[in-house]
Amino acid sequence: MLKVFKNWVQRYFSDEEAVVLAVVLALGFGIIISFGNKLAPLLTGLVLAYLLQGLVTQLRRWNVPHRLSVWIVFVLFVGALGTLFGVIAPLVWRQMFNLFNELPRMLTEWQSQLMHLPERYPAFVSEEQIARLMHTASGEFGQLGQWLLSQSLASLPMLLTILVYLILVPILVFFFLMDNQKITGWMVGHLPRERRLMTRVWTEMNQQIANYIRGKVVEILIVGAVSYVCFAVLGVNYAALLAVVVGISVLVPYIGATVATIPVAMIGLFQWGLSNEFMILMIVYGVIQALDGNVLVPILFSEAVNLHPVAIIAAVLIFGGLWGFWGVFFAIPLATLFKAVLYAWPRGDEPDIELPPQQAV
Q1: Is 216 exposed, middle or buried (0-12, 13-18, 19+ CB in 10 A)?
Q2: DSSP string of 193-246?
Q3: Which pick of 3, 211, 323, 335 has the fewest CB atoms within 10 Å?
Q4: DSSP classification of residue 15
Q5: What average pLDDT score do residues 342-354 get?
Q6: What tens digit of pLDDT does each residue of 208-222 get?
Q7: CA-based diameter of the chain, in Å?
Q8: Taking a C-beta distance cutoff of 8 angstroms, is the pair 242, 97 a contact?
């Protein structure tokens, strides 16, 4: 057993750069796992800086000075942030509050509709099953009410956290954009001089992570905006709230679209029942999801990494369980990092490439 372990270590860790890369990755993951919640504002600022760096780079290509480029992009960012919290967030909050107020009436109407099912379909549904279902639903709604009450009682710390984010995150974004070369140079200065392996992995990952972040944010905005316009035109109740749910659902591949279908279908059924309007709503929603998966995603992620769906779902479950929202957001880049390291990792038993003999002149 010891010999097998020794051979494995010699095979994968005979290269000094491999050992350094393993230590750097272990330290990085350890810091994020241990202090991820405390570093959340820093991660948020870093993600937003990655998102905005493309605009700064484009302005630099137009011969705009670096400082002026950063200030222009930062002012646009602050304006977008003000629009989000001044217009969109209050609208979504009002619709969410109205929806929670409507839940008891919705539950009562659903109960009255369900009680007619045993009369219409006695061979499939019994009164006992309906009663058991309503008892379970009442318990779940009771737990939901208790959770909302606890959240409302704890709203003051949440407001303080939001206030801290609103102050710290823009400051971090500004300095990440203004001093990105200094920060990168400082970090590189603490790495070993011989870092071909790390440079190879970083070069492959840097562009992919930046493209992924920008593409994912653009996808959320486009899907959310299109969903809101379609829901508003169709006259769906809580159109803004449903649009936010559908937009955020694109963060979770395969699973998010399925989960977002449930509130859309439930609100449509409650509003119209099994009518033509409900069928039109579900067809429009299906077209949005189809266009997102077959048109928008290939355009935004033209350099998408070749990962199997099982690997993507596993990454979402693992990293989401470790780091929550950020784990879900970065699941695909982290899976890509794992793949890049796996393919770039030196193996001690790989045969040397023999060059063909030179012909005599």
Answers
A1: buried
A2: S--HHHHHHHHHHHHHHHHHHHHHHHHHHHHHHHHHHHHHHHT-TTHHHHHHHH
A3: 3
A4: S
A5: 57
A6: 777 777 788 888 899
A7: 97
A8: no
What distance in Å separates the CA atoms of residue 316 and residue 329, rounded to the nearest whole number?
A: 8
- Residue 358, token pair as written in the block: 């030179």
d(CA 105, CA 11): 66
Tokens encoding 332 = 């695909």
Distances (CA, A) of 208 to 122, 127, 303: 57, 56, 8
Q: Which one-letter amino acid corresponds to residue 219? A: E
Residues constituting the chain: 361
Amino acid code (one letter) for 176: F
Asked if 51 contacts 209 with a C-beta cutoff of 8 angstroms, the reply is no
Q: Across all residues in the chain, what is the average pLDDT? A: 76
Cα 348 → chain centroid = 37
Q: What is the spatial distance between Cα 311 and Cα 291, in angstroms, rounded to a whole number?
A: 23
How many other C-beta atoms lie within 10 A of the C-beta of residue 161? 12
This prediction's pTM: 0.71
Long-range pairs for 78-81 at CB < 8 Å and ≥24 separation? 78/170, 81/166, 81/170
3-state secondary structure of 346: coil
Count of beta carbons in the 10 Å neighbourhood of residue 361: 3
